[in-house]
Automatic annotation (TrEMBL):
Sequence ranges assigned to domain RNA polymerase sigma-70 region in this UniProt record: 16-77
Cross-referenced SUPFAM superfamilies: Sigma2 domain of RNA polymerase sigma factors, Sigma3 and sigma4 domains of RNA polymerase sigma factors
Residues that span the membrane, as ranges: none
Name of this chain's protein: RNA polymerase sigma factor
Residue span(s) of domain RNA polymerase sigma factor 70 region 4 type: 103-155
Domain of life: Bacteria
Length: 182
């Protein structure tokens, strides 16, 4: 199958953001890579459905999100490492405070309800506007704004943050998630 070079370049340009979003959703790099690969394969197989002139990245994020939800529905009844023995053997000694802060953020993000985490990651970490995030999630803009606001407040609570600037320090990733501007 032949694909237009400009479409291919748009897909390749979006791949790092797709991967970051997939990692955020799955909390597993290998599963995220598989999800991105499946997203790109589906996009190529259905490239005739893409409307030129529209946002390729948003289209790909929608495909990825739908694949994730399909996979999630299949896996939600699966129990992996129920007794936690395997997980207890895994450890990495952090060598920098920012790494620890990032781990705290990941842990707190994982504790957010899925819809809030998804909205926050789209707006705060991936740089989508509220309108674009609403389109990707298939809901109203007000719903996205509400989810992002609730997610930010819950993150602050989970991370025991009172003064964002003082507590978060210079970590730009964390600050962008907590203070994203649409």
């Amino acid at each position: 199958m032949s694909i237009d070079i400009s479409l291919r370049d748009s897909m390749l340009k979006a791949t790092p953001n797709l991967r970051a979003f997939a990692i955020s959703l799955t909390n597993n790099v290998d599963r995220a890579d598989d999800l991105v690969q499946e997203t790109l394969m589906r996009a190529i197989a259905n490239i005739e459905r893409f409307q030129p002139g529209t946002n390729m990245q948003a289209w790909l994020f929608t495909i990825l999100r739908n694949l994730f939800h399909s996979e999630y529905r299949k896996r939600r009844r699966e129990v992996e490492d129920a007794d936690g023995k395997y997980a207890a053997t895994l450890s990495v000694a952090p060598d920098q405070m920012s790494h620890l802060d990032f781990e705290d953020l990941q842990t707190a993000l994982a504790r957010l309800p899925h819809d809030q985490r998804e909205a926050l990651l789209l707006v705060g970490a991936s740089g989508f506007s509220y309108e674009q995030a609403a389109e990707i999630c298939g809901c109203a803009v007000g719903t996205i704004k509400s989810r992002v606001n609730r997610a930010r407040n819950r993150l602050a609570e989970l991370m025991h943050l009172t003064d964002m600037e003082e507590d978060l320090g210079p970590d730009r990733v964390t600050l962008s998630v907590m203070h994203a501007v649409a």
